[in-house]
Amino acid sequence: MNIYRNPFIVALWAPVYQLVATVAITNDFLMMAIFIMCTLGLLGAYVSDFPVLSTLYMNEVAHKTAVSSLMGMLLGFILFLAFGTGGNEGSDGGMVSAGGKFMATWGVLTLPAYPLMAYLISGVNKRDLEAEDKVRKGKRKNRTGPPIMKKDGF
């Protein structure tokens, strides 16, 4: 097996991407919103067949990283809300340092994202991306336009 196609190695992009998310989340709400919008932009680029990176496989990895990041944030915040909230809301946070909060946030986000990314990449490795791209380009070439443009009196 190619080490660059190993799902457990490629899935390490999820914790790296979640590290950027952790920086955005711990700094400011606006940075978190911008990060989420950029992640949604990656998803939109994938859906519209816009090549963000140079190869098909790298675009697939970027898409799977964005999907796992958003799902990791969603599941991580659910885990955080379910298990992380205590009864002392009025206190200043206790004895947890800023670095500890950073690492806890990164851990909570990465815990669901890494296994999901490994699962998604294993599905990508089973596909023939070049054949799918040929079919997609053939369909794009055969498109003639909207049906209203095919009328004789137009």
Walk me through what this model shows.
With 154 residues, this protein is an all-alpha fold. Helix content is 70%, strand content 0%. It contains six helices and no strands. The chain has helices at residues 7-10, 13-27, 29-47, 56-83, 98-125, 129-142. Helix 2 (13-27) runs antiparallel to helix 5 and helix 3 packs antiparallel against helix 4. It is elongated, with a radius of gyration of 21 Å. The mean pLDDT is 84.
The count of helical stretches stands at: 6
Mean pLDDT: 84
Helix content: over 70%
User: SSE order in H/E notation?
Assistant: HHHHHH
Shape: elongated
What would you report as the Rg, rounded to the nearest angstrom?
21 Å
Low-confidence stretches: none
Strand fraction equals under 5%
Which structural class is indicated by helix and strand composition?
Answer: mainly alpha
The domain tally reads: 1
Distance between the termini: 57 Å
Strand count: 0
Largest sheet: none
